[in-house]
Amino acid sequence: MLLDVALTDPGDPRIAPLINAGVSGDGHTVAFSTYMVPPANRTEIAFFDIASGRRLDRTWIIDGSGANRLAASADGRYLVATTNIFVAVWDLKLRREVARLTAPARGSALVARFSPDGQYLAVGNSLGRLSMWHVSDWRLQWQAEAGHNGYDVAVSFSPDGSMVASSGTDSKIFLYDVNTGEMVGGAYGPDRNNWLYAEFKADRNELVGYFDDGSMAQWDVDPGSQIRSACQIAGRELSEREWDRLVPGQPFRPVCPA
Fold first, then answer.
1. Hey, which of 150, 180, 208, 210 would disulfide with 170, CB 3.0 to 4.6 Å?
2. What does the pLDDT look like over 51-64, one tens digit per residue?
């Protein structure tokens, strides 16, 4: 066992029997959150050095809410805690809280994910409407106008960081442009009305998702792949008449690979 620590007294009735954990992106620090039930109503997050198992001297206190999830930036600088009211941000270098993020359409913040380049933080909430934040100044970039009929339960960035996928309790996946928040597509079915957790593959624009009934599915969301598949099925190019119907106002051009 790499790390075995005692956070609280297991018999303490003031502490909810649920612990969230998060590891810093550089692999040096691990954080454990515990929730003190009302009337205390606060989250306490303790930090440990992974190599030595030593508890670090600063504890993060979040009054008035429990932490839903913890997420870390890849560079090891930040840790975020999603709560029922806001998203709290801890600077591991400064060893203090540096921001609290609240989107216009609030809902409970449930899940968070940093972009591959560390420039953005995506947050999913109980309204099913994803929000995107600038890490440099923790400014809101956008909040999705439309989303899930239910909760966001997983957020994943495409390998190049241009798209972000939100999957939810309605067994659907929505794809958004990271810069603008425009919904650029979705991945649907099989429609089981189950919770769906989806993740981009590390090296391609393919999503792998698993449902809470134990089944799995895969989607190819690369436009180039879709074009190649359509051309292969049709066995020919689009005609000019088909082009005018599907892409009105645009000059005709071949789309199928040679």
1. 150
2. 998 999 899 999 98
